[in-house]
Amino acid sequence: MRNVLVLVVLAGLMAALSSMALAANSDTITVNYEVQAINELAITDAAVTLTVSAATAGSQPNAVTASTTYDITTNETKKITAVLDTAMPANTTLTLNAAAPTGGTSAGAVTLTNVAADVVTGISEVAEAGKSLTFGLSATVSAGVVAAASKTCTLTVTN
After folding, report:
1. Residue 7 has pLDDT above 60, yes or no
2. What burial class does residue 90 get, using C-beta atoms within 10 Å of its C-beta: 0-12 exposed, 13-18 middle, 19+ buried?
3. Is residue 21 part of a domain?
4. Containing domain of residue 51, as a range?
5. Cα–Cα distance measured from residue 149 to residue 139, given in angstroms and rounded to the nearest whole number
6. Is residue 34 in some structural domain?
7. Total structural domains within the chain
8. How far from the centroid of its chain's Cα atoms is residue 79's Cα?
9. Among 9, 44, 120, 134, which is 20 to 30 Å from 113 by CA?
């Protein structure tokens, strides 16, 4: 009986040792991954100020400009649109000239309204910083005196 007990203990020990000896020195794991759509745009300054305040006698008031920059990262083919929250006052025009990132095409000076307009098209996968945004304000004498006000211009990376 004692011999049988020793044999059973030895057999169990050998089974345990053999399973350790059979353990692999490598294994595998499945790595799941994905890259989602990335479309980020950031404007450097929170605001620009445009003040029409001079004219040459006999001519319409002088248009003025102010600039800032934007950064863009996208891993898709996109465009940038611009829209104002509300329309500009009569006889005033607000424009935006957005420099295009590499591979894109600028629409030049686009008149901004409360309807979205393309300002840059044909943007492919790109990550660039410091692209210029130049806003322009012009007014005719028929605009009269326009009190200081503001408009929100929304730039959107879209299809």
Report:
1. no
2. exposed
3. no
4. 39-158
5. 14
6. no
7. 1
8. 11
9. 44
In a domain, 4, yes or no: no
How do beta strands 39-43 and 64-74 pair?
Answer: antiparallel
Report the range of poorest mean pLDDT among 8-17, 88-97, 105-114, 118-127: 8-17
To the question of pTM greater than 0.85 for the whole model, the response is: no
Q: Tokens 């030895």 — which residue?
A: 10
pLDDT band at 24 (very low <50, low <70, confident <90, very high): confident
pLDDT in tens, 99-125: 999 999 999 999 999 999 999 999 999
115: which 2 tokens? 């309807």
Q: Residue 55 and residue 141: Cα distance in Å, rounded?
A: 10
Q: How far is CA 103 from CA 122, 127, 138, 142, in A?
A: 7, 11, 30, 41
Which helix H or strand E contains 74, and what residues bound it?
strand 64-74
| Residue 45 forms part of a structural domain | yes
Whichever domain contains 65, its CATH number is 2.60.40
Amino acid at 125: E
